[in-house]
Structures
1.
Amino acid sequence: MTATQQEHWDEVYRTKAADSVSWYQPTPEPSLRALDEMHLPVTAALIDVGGGASSLVDRLVERGWSDLAVLDIAAPALDVAKARLRGDATRIAWLVTDVTKWRPGRRYDVWHDRAVFHFLTEPEQRLAYRRALETGTAPGSAVIIATFATDGPERCSGLPVQRYDAAALAAEFGSAFSLEREWREEHMTPGGGRQSFQWCVFRRR
Ligand SMILES: C[S@@+](CC[C@H](N)C(=O)[O-])C[C@H]1O[C@@H](n2cnc3c(N)ncnc32)[C@H](O)[C@@H]1O
C-alpha cells in the first residue's frame, strides 16, 4: 500500500459517517457466528486485521473476550471505534499500520479479515500479507476471512478489488492453511444495495 492509499482511507473515515459506508454492518453476524462455532475460550487472542470502525470488538468485549487487537492503516477509523468503546477501548490493542508492511510481534489464535485482503491486487502485496499472516499465527490458529465473491462488486470505496471463490482463496493461502468451512453472504449496504461476499475459515496446519 502506498501513502496515497493510506490517505485515501484516512479521508474516508474523516469524511463519512461510520454507519454510512457500504461495508457497514449493524452487527457483525457472520463473524460472530463463525466464532461461536469454534467454541473458543474468551482468553483466545484475536486480531481484526483492517478492522476499521467495525463493532466486532465491541461485541467480543461484551462477551468477555480479554485479548483483542484491531489493526488498520487508517488512524481515524480506529479513533471512531475507540470513541464508541469509551473506557473499554483501553482493553484493546490498537495498531495503526499497513498489514503488508507489518511484522507481528506475537501470535494470535484468530486472525479475522473482513473486506481487506481483496484490496491487495498485486501479487507482491498478497505475498507480504501472507508473510504477516504466517508470523502472526501458529499451528492451530484460525483465519476467518471475507472478500467480495466472484460475482461481487469490482470496486469498493473507489478502489479496485480482487474477487475470490473459496478455491481461489485457498490457493492464495497455500498448503499451510486448510479450508474448514466456506459460505457466501449477501451483504445489504446501508444504501440498500447487495454485495456478494465469500467467507472462508482456514486452520493453520
Ligand atoms: C472495506 S473496509 C472494512 C472494514 C472492517 N473490516 C469492516 O468489516 O467493517 C476496509 C478496511 O481496511 C483498511 N485497510 C485497507 N488497506 C489496508 C492495509 N493495507 N493495511 C491495513 N488496513 C487496511 C481500511 O482502512 C478499512 O478500514
Note: Residues 3-15+43-204 form a domain with the Rossmann fold fold (CATH 3.40.50.150).
2.
Amino acid sequence: MPELPEIEACRRNIEPYLINQVIDYAVVRNLSLRWPISKEILNIRNQFIFSIKRRAKYLLIQLQHGWIIIHFGMSGRLMLLNQYEYPQKHDHIDIFMKNKIILRYTDQRRFGACLWVDNLSTHFLFKHLGLEPLSEEFNSQYLVNKLNLKKTSIKQSIMNNKIVVGIGNIYANESLFATGILPSRCSMHLSRKEIQLLVKNIKLILLNAIEEGGTTLRNFLQSDGKPGGFANKLKVYGRAKKPCLECGALIIKEKYKGRSSYWCQECQS
Ligand SMILES: [Zn+2]
C-alpha cells in the first residue's frame, strides 16, 4: 500500500508537468473504484490547474473550480504519458492536458478513489485528520500533549490519523527502532526526551524516504506499494529473524490486529 513518502514523491514528480496547465478533457473507463468516481470529473474541460498538493495520503489537484482528490488504495498509481498509449485493463482514468500530456490512473485492485469536490475543508475525508508529520505544528510539545494519559501503545498512537496523519506501519516501525522504543510501550510512559527524539526521527525517516521515492520512482508510483528506493534502507520492517544492523540480535516480528510489528529486543526498550 503506498504510504505518505511514495505519494509525496509522486506529487513532487508530477507537479512540474501539471502546474499552470489547462485540462483538455477526461476519460473515465470504470466508475467503480472504492467509491464511484465523481461524474464531475467529466466536466473539468478547460480548467486551469493551480496546484498539486497532498494531505495525508490523498493527492489533491487544485482546479479553477474545486479539487480532484486521488487516493491510491492498495494498488493505485499515476503515470504521465507524453503520447497516447492504448489503455490496459486496469487503466481507469485518463486526464488529457492541452499541452498533450496525459495523466493516467491505474488501479488493479480498485480500492483507490478519484473524487471531485468543491470544498476540501468541510469534506468528510479531511474533517477529522490530525497534523501533517512534516509540518512545524507537529512537534514534541504537541505530541507530549496528545500522549498524556493515553493508554494505547506508542505504535498505535503514532499511527492514529487523528493525532498525526500518514505514518503507516513501515514508518512507525522504523521510527520506533531509530528512537530505541519498543512498539508496545504505553504512550503515557514515554519521557519528554524520548518524545522529542521520536518526533525528530519520524521527520527524518519520512524525508529520507521521500527523497528515495523521488529518485527511484520518477513519474510512477510503484504498483506493489513498496517504499521505492527506501526499501534497501529499512532497518527492522520486513527483516524478521534477520540480524539487527546495529547489534546483531535477531529482529522479532509479532502480529497485532493484522499489522506486524518488528523490533530489536536489545536496541529497543
Ligand atoms: Zn539491535
Note: Residues 192-216 form the longest helix (25 residues).
